């Protein structure tokens, strides 16, 4: 009787583990939300994460939305995760689990009209100015809350408002901002100031329902970082994206 009871207990305890592995094995595709804007950093991260998922025999597809909408869909389990975010989202989006290895570093820069350039030391350097920020970029939204800031729907409108002097400065990511200025043909009128306000690691996030996938991605990306494969993949993807830009 005791032996039979112990066997039943072992089987019962093993079932969740077996189910988790089975669930992971059944995943052949993930839907990952991200911003609906042309941005080099998103393009680079898409290439990198697609290769990482391919190593797990999983296809990654992007579902693009405005920043806040993308985040809500991921946190609500309508998608499988978020492509790339800072840790700022973790205070309000508790269903999203960070894959611990950073997928990139983002440089947050100040932009202004060329004739109005000034010295940037930190966020306090912006106190005398009105600031434009893009809706859905949580890190910038939170940092600018105590300043004279205006939340603007998208990067195109942000830089147009800066050009028209509706705001004094804009805070946006460096690589994507320079790309947007060139696309809008404003790169001769608007400049980004040095040094950047902050350089921040960014991460891939998965909905907590995918426990086995979170473990698999965490292990794989740590191994790739340790071996140098991840950094090489990021550099290769950056070169491909930069070469493809107009």
TrEMBL record:
Signal sequence, renumbered to the chain: 1-24
Organism listed in the record: Alkalimarinus sediminis
Protein name: Transporter substrate-binding domain-containing protein
Alphabetic keyword roster: Signal
UniProt entry tagged with the keyword Signal: yes
Database matches in SUPFAM superfamilies: Periplasmic binding protein-like II
Family: Belongs to the bacterial solute-binding protein 3 family.
Superkingdom, taxonomy of origin: Bacteria
């Amino acid at each position: 009787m005791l032996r039979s009871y112990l066997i039943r207990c072992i089987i019962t305890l093993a079932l969740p583990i077996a189910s988790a592995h089975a669930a992971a094995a059944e995943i052949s595709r993930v839907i990952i939300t991200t911003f609906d804007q042309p941005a080099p950093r998103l393009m680079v991260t898409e290439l990198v994460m697609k290769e990482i998922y391919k190593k797990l025999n999983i296809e990654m597809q992007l579902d693009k939305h405005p920043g806040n909408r993308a985040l809500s869909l991921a946190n609500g389990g309508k998608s499988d995760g978020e492509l790339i975010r800072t840790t700022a989202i973790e205070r309000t989006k508790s269903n999203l689990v960070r894959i611990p290895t950073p997928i990139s570093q983002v440089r947050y820069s100040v932009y202004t009209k060329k004739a109005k350039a000034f010295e940037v030391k930190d966020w306090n350097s912006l106190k005398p100015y009105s600031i434009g920020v893009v809706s859905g970029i949580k890190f910038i939204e939170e940092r600018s809350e105590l300043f004279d800031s205006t939340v603007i729907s998208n990067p195109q409108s942000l830089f147009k408002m800066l050009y028209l002097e509706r705001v004094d400065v804009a805070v946006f990511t460096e690589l994507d901002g320079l790309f947007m200025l060139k696309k809008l043909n404003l790169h001769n009128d608007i400049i980004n100031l040095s040094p950047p306000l902050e350089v921040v690691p960014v991460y891939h996030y998965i909905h907590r329902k995918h426990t086995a996938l979170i473990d698999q991605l965490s292990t794989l990306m740590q191994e790739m970082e340790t071996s140098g494969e991840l950094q090489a993949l990021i550099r290769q993807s950056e070169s491909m994206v930069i070469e493809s830009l107009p």
